[in-house]
Amino acid sequence: MSDSSARDLHPRTRAVHAGARRSQYGELAEAIFLTQGFQYPSAEEAEARFIQSGPDEFIYARYGNPTSRMFEDRIAALEGTEDAFATASGMAAVNGALFSMLRPGDRVVAARALFGSCLYILELLDAFGVTVDYVDGADLDQWRAALATAAKVVFFETLANPTLEIVDLPAVAELGHAAGATVVVDNVFATPVFSRAVEQGADVVVYSATKHIDGSGRALGGVICGTRQFVRKVAEPYIKHTGGAISPFNAWIMLNGLVTMDLRVRAQAESARAIAEALHGRDSVRVIYPGLPDHPQHETAMRVMGSGGTMIALDLGSKEAAFRALDRLRVWSISNNLGDARSIVTHPATTTHQRLPEEARARLGIGPGLIRLSVGLEDTGDLIADLEQALG
After folding, report:
1. What angle do CA 303, 311, 286 make, to 5 degrees?
2. Given pLDDT bands bounded at 50, 70 and 90, which one contains residue 4?
3. pTM of the predicted model, to two decimals?
4. Domain ranges of the chain
5. Separation in Å, CA 149 to CA 92, 174, 177, 309
6. From residue 229, how far is each of 83, 155, 232, 287 by CA, in Å?
7. Residue 135 in 3-state DSSP?
């Protein structure tokens, strides 16, 4: 199926068919091309391919591979971008998107609430001479003030990890473009299912495919989605020469994850909403879920995503209360992953965000009693009952 014909279809259909390449055997399932190199019919063709490769011509798996190209074409068709480049992990995607286009003297305006590893990459950029200014992502006045001065990049998570703060993507994108910036969004929590990032003004969208795209916690992967010029002329040269490309086997896993992703994510989001409603109003528990009307950015979440998503945060007041609840859980798994078919609970202050100083965590709202819930595919009633008994 060609990219042009795929774009006319429903996203769920695109997730099954877009970007497929068939060998001479006509296999129905996508093939895994487990090869790092490719053979050329002649020396002349080898020379020509190194000068300019065609869409189905490959040189080396670090540069591209038929299986990884299928995944790239499919996620680009799903996201609504011209192209995509698959990376070894989500953080390879963030690193590649930012480092490939920034130079000493450039300026980045970023939301303060970011995943710990994203903050580390921004610190690296600062060390290499890139100015990084932070704002509170939900505060449009802070974005407006910061972007009154020219910037090269605007960077934020559509839905912040782990506090579930929503950024008004269309408004911030408009401000960023007026300041001359490329708008880069980490869309992991929003997922490709609820994403309308490109339609709402994002220029570059990055995902950790490890999360909802795989959906079963099997493999690492990431992807950068954007214009063909950005993906192939800016991001790809940096990633292929620094070694951040995805492995063909992992790309094959992500391809198969995309087939069921729409069904999985919608079921997980519906379950998350029911869990949040069941726990809402409970003594000694503050429920943070964008799908609840009392969430500070509920209206923005509905406008930007159309859903509350698959993630919930609970504030139990203290580390002791949080650990006590985690240790009582029977169905939920304690882990630092998310977007899995299994329901996962995380204590960010001591795991994913533990390297941040306590003052910085407090400013972001990552208190000692905060726990992050990634809702899986188990029975919703079982998940609620397990949480209720753990909360005592």
Report:
1. 95
2. low
3. 0.93
4. 10-257, 263-391
5. 29, 14, 12, 33
6. 9, 19, 6, 43
7. strand
